[in-house]
Amino acid sequence: MVERVNVCGVPIKWAASFDLNGVHFLECCWNCTHSGKWGVFHHTPDLCLIDGGQALGSQEISKMPSTWVYAFGFTVLPNAGTISAFITQKEIPGWYATLKKPSWCPPNWVFGPVWTTLYTSMGYGSYLVWKELGGFSDKALIPLGLYGTQLVLNWAWTPIFFGAHKMGLAFAELLCICGTAAATTVIWYPINRTAAYLMVPYMAWLTLASALNYRIWRDNKDKED
User: Average pLDDT, whole number, for the chain?
Assistant: First the structure.
């Protein structure tokens, strides 16, 4: 049986369980700044022995951040990109309204809910990967690094398109987002399939956004600053 709990802010994989003088113990292995070595947990756990020596009481363990804190943080983080909405508030009824758009362009009210949903989904996916790899370990460097890169590129698109009115540059930047997001999805798949699947709607929306960005750029080059 494999069970995961949170100690020292990172997941733990139980390796073995056994009974000693009528007391049930769980022997576990973790990967954190303490060592990545072995420790023994009482089932309750009223006592935790780290590296076979230092004892942590239940009060000290209770002070460690709960798993939901990390899940919430990772899930909400991508939504920081919505703060750029103040840029679009005046541009949508102004400059953007004057642009020629294809008939299949989604209505303006769709973009807010869609991006909130996609940001939340990919954020939770990043948490699953982070948890699966034991926190910010060496193994997490590339999977989370690619994710962070595409997220920063994503946040930069709105100021480029709506703020600077650089439709061509925004399209090129959007292609970079597609590339890094695709790489993130591929590298996440063997780590946590659920996380990779959570990126699929995002990839589909990026495809639509890229086509829309190109059409608007092609048909409105005279309105590009």
Answer: 79
Tell me, what amino acid is at 19?
D
Alpha-carbon distances, residue 196 vs 7, 13, 94, 120 (angstroms): 26, 22, 38, 14
For the record, the structure tokens of 37 come out as 């070595």
Name all contacts of 29-36 with Cβ < 8 Å and 24+ positions apart: 30/134, 31/134, 31/135, 31/137, 32/7, 32/8, 32/134, 32/135, 33/8, 34/8
- The number of residues in the chain equals 225
Domains parsed from the chain with CATH numbers: 4-62 (no CATH), 67-223 (1.20.1260.100)
- Asked if 202 contacts 181 with a C-beta cutoff of 8 angstroms, the reply is yes
Q: Which amino acid is at 160?
A: I
Least confident of 35-44, 59-68, 103-112: 35-44
Please report which residue ranges of 77-166 form alpha helices under DSSP H: 85-91, 108-132, 141-158
For residue 71, what are its two tokens? 């899940």
63: its two tokens = 């002070």
Q: Which helix (H) or strand (E) holds 182?
A: helix 167-188
pTM for this one?
0.71
DSSP, collapsed to helix, strand or coil, labels residue 47 as strand
